[in-house]
Protein backbone atom coordinates (compact mmCIF):
# COMPACT_ATOMS: atom_id res chain seq x y z
CA UNK A 1 0.00 0.00 0.00
CA UNK A 2 1.25 3.46 -0.87
CA UNK A 3 1.40 5.70 2.17
CA UNK A 4 0.69 9.36 1.38
CA UNK A 5 3.42 11.75 2.39
CA UNK A 6 0.90 14.31 3.60
CA UNK A 7 -2.62 13.62 4.82
CA UNK A 8 -4.88 16.53 5.70
CA UNK A 9 -8.22 16.37 7.46
CA UNK A 10 -11.07 18.87 7.65
CA UNK A 11 -12.36 17.77 11.04
CA UNK A 12 -16.06 18.54 10.71
CA UNK A 13 -19.28 17.52 12.45
CA UNK A 14 -18.50 18.10 16.13
CA UNK A 15 -21.57 20.27 16.63
CA UNK A 16 -23.95 17.79 15.01
CA UNK A 17 -22.40 14.94 17.00
CA UNK A 18 -23.09 16.80 20.24
CA UNK A 19 -26.60 17.80 19.17
CA UNK A 20 -27.48 14.17 18.46
CA UNK A 21 -26.89 13.46 22.13
CA UNK A 22 -28.60 16.59 23.35
CA UNK A 23 -25.33 18.16 24.47
CA UNK A 24 -23.65 21.53 23.93
CA UNK A 25 -21.47 22.00 20.85
CA UNK A 26 -18.34 22.22 22.97
CA UNK A 27 -18.96 18.70 24.17
CA UNK A 28 -18.49 17.59 20.54
CA UNK A 29 -15.29 19.59 20.13
CA UNK A 30 -13.92 18.00 23.26
CA UNK A 31 -14.86 14.51 22.07
CA UNK A 32 -12.95 15.19 18.84
CA UNK A 33 -9.73 15.02 20.81
CA UNK A 34 -9.89 11.24 20.87
CA UNK A 35 -10.11 11.18 17.06
CA UNK A 36 -7.07 13.47 16.83
CA UNK A 37 -5.16 11.10 19.10
CA UNK A 38 -6.19 8.02 17.11
CA UNK A 39 -5.23 9.59 13.76
CA UNK A 40 -1.93 10.96 15.02
CA UNK A 41 -0.98 7.61 16.49
CA UNK A 42 -1.92 5.69 13.34
CA UNK A 43 -0.15 8.12 10.99
CA UNK A 44 3.00 7.98 13.11
CA UNK A 45 2.83 4.19 13.10
CA UNK A 46 2.49 3.72 9.33
CA UNK A 47 5.07 6.36 8.46
CA UNK A 48 3.04 9.29 7.15
CA UNK A 49 5.31 12.34 6.95
CA UNK A 50 2.78 15.09 7.64
CA UNK A 51 -0.68 15.09 9.16
CA UNK A 52 -2.40 18.46 9.01
CA UNK A 53 -5.66 19.04 10.82
CA UNK A 54 -8.01 21.95 10.10
CA UNK A 55 -8.97 22.95 13.62
CA UNK A 56 -10.24 26.51 13.26
CA UNK A 57 -10.83 28.66 10.18
CA UNK A 58 -10.64 32.43 9.82
CA UNK A 59 -14.41 32.31 9.31
CA UNK A 60 -14.85 30.40 12.57
CA UNK A 61 -13.97 33.61 14.45
CA UNK A 62 -17.50 34.66 13.49
CA UNK A 63 -19.09 31.96 15.69
CA UNK A 64 -20.71 32.87 19.03
CA UNK A 65 -18.14 34.24 21.50
CA UNK A 66 -18.61 31.42 24.01
CA UNK A 67 -17.95 28.75 21.40
CA UNK A 68 -14.81 30.57 20.19
CA UNK A 69 -13.58 31.02 23.75
CA UNK A 70 -14.32 27.37 24.56
CA UNK A 71 -12.42 26.18 21.48
CA UNK A 72 -9.38 28.34 22.26
CA UNK A 73 -9.42 27.14 25.84
CA UNK A 74 -9.62 23.53 24.67
CA UNK A 75 -6.68 24.04 22.31
CA UNK A 76 -4.63 25.58 25.08
CA UNK A 77 -5.34 22.63 27.36
CA UNK A 78 -4.49 20.13 24.62
CA UNK A 79 -1.06 21.74 24.19
CA UNK A 80 -0.28 20.99 27.81
CA UNK A 81 -1.99 17.63 28.11
CA UNK A 82 -0.71 16.07 24.86
CA UNK A 83 2.86 17.28 25.32
CA UNK A 84 4.25 14.09 26.82
CA UNK A 85 2.60 11.82 24.25
CA UNK A 86 3.96 13.91 21.39
CA UNK A 87 7.46 13.87 22.83
CA UNK A 88 7.30 10.14 23.52
CA UNK A 89 6.16 9.40 19.97
CA UNK A 90 8.84 11.57 18.30
CA UNK A 91 6.15 13.85 16.81
CA UNK A 92 7.06 17.32 15.60
CA UNK A 93 4.30 19.79 16.38
CA UNK A 94 3.50 22.88 14.35
CA UNK A 95 0.72 25.44 14.07
CA UNK A 96 -0.03 27.18 10.78
CA UNK A 97 -2.40 30.14 10.54
CA UNK A 98 -2.81 33.79 11.41
CA UNK A 99 -0.92 33.94 14.72
CA UNK A 100 -1.73 37.62 15.12
CA UNK A 101 -5.30 36.67 16.06
CA UNK A 102 -4.32 34.22 18.81
CA UNK A 103 -4.24 35.30 22.45
CA UNK A 104 -0.82 35.93 23.99
CA UNK A 105 -1.15 32.92 26.32
CA UNK A 106 -2.24 30.50 23.57
CA UNK A 107 0.57 31.74 21.34
CA UNK A 108 3.06 31.20 24.13
CA UNK A 109 1.87 27.61 24.59
CA UNK A 110 2.04 26.97 20.84
CA UNK A 111 5.54 28.39 20.50
CA UNK A 112 6.88 26.47 23.45
CA UNK A 113 5.55 23.13 22.18
CA UNK A 114 6.89 23.87 18.70
CA UNK A 115 10.28 24.56 20.17
CA UNK A 116 10.28 21.48 22.38
CA UNK A 117 9.37 19.15 19.52
CA UNK A 118 11.38 20.91 16.79
CA UNK A 119 14.09 18.28 16.59
CA UNK A 120 11.72 15.29 16.57
CA UNK A 121 12.17 13.29 13.40
CA UNK A 122 8.91 11.32 13.19
CA UNK A 123 5.50 12.52 12.05
CA UNK A 124 4.98 16.27 11.68
CA UNK A 125 1.58 17.12 13.17
CA UNK A 126 0.29 20.45 11.92
CA UNK A 127 -2.69 22.18 13.48
CA UNK A 128 -4.23 24.63 11.03
CA UNK A 129 -5.45 27.32 13.38
CA UNK A 130 -7.00 30.63 12.42
CA UNK A 131 -6.23 29.56 8.87
CA UNK A 132 -7.94 30.12 5.56
CA UNK A 133 -6.78 29.55 2.01
CA UNK A 134 -7.55 33.07 0.81
CA UNK A 135 -5.85 34.58 3.86
CA UNK A 136 -2.77 32.51 3.06
CA UNK A 137 -2.61 33.53 -0.60
CA UNK A 138 -3.15 37.18 0.33
CA UNK A 139 -0.46 37.26 3.01
CA UNK A 140 1.92 35.59 0.54
CA UNK A 141 1.13 38.23 -2.11
CA UNK A 142 1.66 41.02 0.42
CA UNK A 143 5.01 39.66 1.54
CA UNK A 144 6.16 39.22 -2.04
CA UNK A 145 5.11 42.81 -2.81
CA UNK A 146 6.99 44.05 0.21
CA UNK A 147 10.13 42.15 -0.87
CA UNK A 148 9.80 43.78 -4.31
CA UNK A 149 9.53 47.22 -2.72
CA UNK A 150 12.59 46.54 -0.67
CA UNK A 151 14.51 45.30 -3.71
CA UNK A 152 13.29 48.25 -5.78
CA UNK A 153 12.22 45.98 -8.63
CA UNK A 154 9.68 43.28 -9.56
CA UNK A 155 11.40 40.10 -8.38
CA UNK A 156 11.04 36.98 -10.53
CA UNK A 157 8.28 34.69 -9.28
CA UNK A 158 7.29 31.18 -10.28
CA UNK A 159 5.04 28.57 -8.62
CA UNK A 160 7.79 27.21 -6.41
CA UNK A 161 8.79 30.72 -5.39
CA UNK A 162 5.20 31.64 -4.55
CA UNK A 163 4.74 28.45 -2.51
CA UNK A 164 7.67 29.65 -0.45
CA UNK A 165 5.69 32.72 0.61
CA UNK A 166 2.69 30.66 1.76
CA UNK A 167 2.24 29.90 5.46
CA UNK A 168 2.76 26.23 4.54
CA UNK A 169 6.22 26.89 3.05
CA UNK A 170 8.37 23.79 3.28
CA UNK A 171 5.41 21.45 3.80
CA UNK A 172 4.64 19.25 0.78
CA UNK A 173 1.16 19.72 -0.71
CA UNK A 174 -1.44 17.30 0.72
CA UNK A 175 -1.71 14.04 -1.20
CA UNK A 176 -5.01 13.13 0.46
CA UNK A 177 -7.63 15.46 1.93
CA UNK A 178 -10.30 13.88 4.10
CA UNK A 179 -13.45 15.72 5.16
CA UNK A 180 -15.77 14.21 7.71
CA UNK A 181 -19.48 14.81 8.37
CA UNK A 182 -20.70 14.42 4.79
CA UNK A 183 -20.00 17.98 3.65
CA UNK A 184 -18.42 18.03 0.22
CA UNK A 185 -16.75 21.41 0.03
CA UNK A 186 -13.33 22.95 0.60
CA UNK A 187 -14.54 25.74 2.96
CA UNK A 188 -11.62 28.05 2.14
CA UNK A 189 -9.00 25.52 3.19
CA UNK A 190 -5.63 25.08 1.42
CA UNK A 191 -6.77 26.47 -1.94
CA UNK A 192 -3.36 26.72 -3.58
CA UNK A 193 -1.93 23.59 -1.98
CA UNK A 194 -4.83 21.30 -2.97
CA UNK A 195 -4.34 21.80 -6.72
CA UNK A 196 -3.73 18.05 -7.23
CA UNK A 197 -4.86 16.61 -3.93
CA UNK A 198 -7.10 13.53 -3.86
CA UNK A 199 -10.34 14.22 -1.96
CA UNK A 200 -12.12 11.72 0.28
CA UNK A 201 -15.48 12.47 1.87
CA UNK A 202 -17.07 10.42 4.61
CA UNK A 203 -20.40 10.83 6.41
CA UNK A 204 -18.73 9.87 9.72
CA UNK A 205 -18.82 12.78 12.19
CA UNK A 206 -15.38 13.81 13.44
CA UNK A 207 -15.76 12.59 17.06
CA UNK A 208 -16.60 9.11 15.70
CA UNK A 209 -13.66 9.00 13.27
CA UNK A 210 -11.14 6.28 14.14
CA UNK A 211 -8.29 4.22 12.72
CA UNK A 212 -10.60 2.01 10.63
CA UNK A 213 -12.08 5.11 8.96
CA UNK A 214 -8.59 6.33 8.14
CA UNK A 215 -7.75 2.89 6.76
CA UNK A 216 -10.78 3.11 4.47
CA UNK A 217 -9.65 6.51 3.23
CA UNK A 218 -6.19 5.08 2.51
CA UNK A 219 -7.70 2.16 0.64
CA UNK A 220 -9.67 4.57 -1.53
CA UNK A 221 -6.55 6.70 -2.07
CA UNK A 222 -4.67 3.63 -3.25
CA UNK A 223 -7.24 3.00 -5.98
CA UNK A 224 -6.79 6.48 -7.43
CA UNK A 225 -4.71 7.17 -10.47
CA UNK A 226 -3.02 10.52 -10.12
CA UNK A 227 -2.48 11.91 -13.59
CA UNK A 228 -1.61 15.57 -13.01
CA UNK A 229 -3.18 16.48 -16.32
CA UNK A 230 -1.07 14.02 -18.32
CA UNK A 231 -2.04 10.81 -20.12
CA UNK A 232 -0.74 7.51 -18.80
C1 LIG B 1 -15.83 21.23 13.26
O1 LIG B 1 -17.08 20.93 13.76
C2 LIG B 1 -14.97 21.99 14.22
C3 LIG B 1 -14.80 23.42 13.89
C4 LIG B 1 -15.18 23.98 12.79
C5 LIG B 1 -14.16 24.26 14.87
P1 LIG B 1 -18.28 21.96 13.67
O2 LIG B 1 -18.27 22.82 14.87
O3 LIG B 1 -18.23 22.70 12.37
O4 LIG B 1 -19.52 20.97 13.70
P2 LIG B 1 -20.82 21.03 12.79
O5 LIG B 1 -20.39 21.15 11.38
O6 LIG B 1 -21.59 22.25 13.24
O7 LIG B 1 -21.54 19.77 13.09
C1 LIG C 1 -14.50 23.93 8.25
O1 LIG C 1 -15.67 23.56 8.89
C2 LIG C 1 -13.51 24.43 9.24
C3 LIG C 1 -12.98 23.45 10.17
C4 LIG C 1 -13.27 22.19 10.20
C5 LIG C 1 -12.03 23.95 11.12
P1 LIG C 1 -16.92 24.55 9.01
O2 LIG C 1 -17.97 23.81 9.73
O3 LIG C 1 -16.49 25.84 9.57
O4 LIG C 1 -17.30 24.78 7.47
P2 LIG C 1 -18.70 25.11 6.78
O5 LIG C 1 -19.24 26.33 7.44
O6 LIG C 1 -19.58 23.93 6.97
O7 LIG C 1 -18.35 25.31 5.33
MG1 LIG D 1 -18.97 22.32 10.54
What does this molecule look like?
With 232 residues, this protein is an alpha/beta fold. It has a single domain, classed as Decaprenyl diphosphate synthase-like (Undecaprenyl pyrophosphate synthetase, 3-Layer(aba) Sandwich), CATH 3.40.1180.10. Helices cover 44% and strands 15% of the residues. It is built from eight helices and six strands; from the N terminus they run βααβααβαβααββα. Strands 3-4-2-1-5-6 form a six-stranded parallel sheet, sandwiched between helices. α5 links the parallel β3 and β4. α1 packs across α2. The longest helix is centred in the first third of the chain and has 22 residues. The protein is globular and about 60 Å long. The mean pLDDT is 98. It binds 3-methylbut-3-enyl trihydrogen diphosphate (IPE) (2 copies) and magnesium ion (MG). One 3-methylbut-3-enyl trihydrogen diphosphate binds next to β2.
CATH class: Alpha Beta
Going by CATH, the architecture would be 3-Layer(aba) Sandwich
* Proportion of helical residues: 40-55%
Present as ligands are:
3-methylbut-3-enyl trihydrogen diphosphate, magnesium ion
Mean pLDDT: 98
Largest β-sheet summary = 6 strands, parallel
Question: Order of strands in the sheet with the most strands?
Answer: 3-4-2-1-5-6
Q: Quote the CATH topology.
A: Undecaprenyl pyrophosphate synthetase
Question: Which structural class do the helices and strands define?
Answer: alpha/beta
Number of strands: 6
Tell the overall outline.
globular
What is the number of helices? 8
- State which percent range the strand residues make up: 5-15%
Number of domains: 1
Amino acid sequence: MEIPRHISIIMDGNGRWAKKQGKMRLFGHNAGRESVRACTEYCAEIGVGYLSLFAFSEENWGRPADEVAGLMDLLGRCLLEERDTLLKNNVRFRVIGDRARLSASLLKGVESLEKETASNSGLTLIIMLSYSGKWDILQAARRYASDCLEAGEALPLDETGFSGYLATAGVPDPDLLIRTSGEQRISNYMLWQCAYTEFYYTPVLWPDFRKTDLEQALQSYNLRERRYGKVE
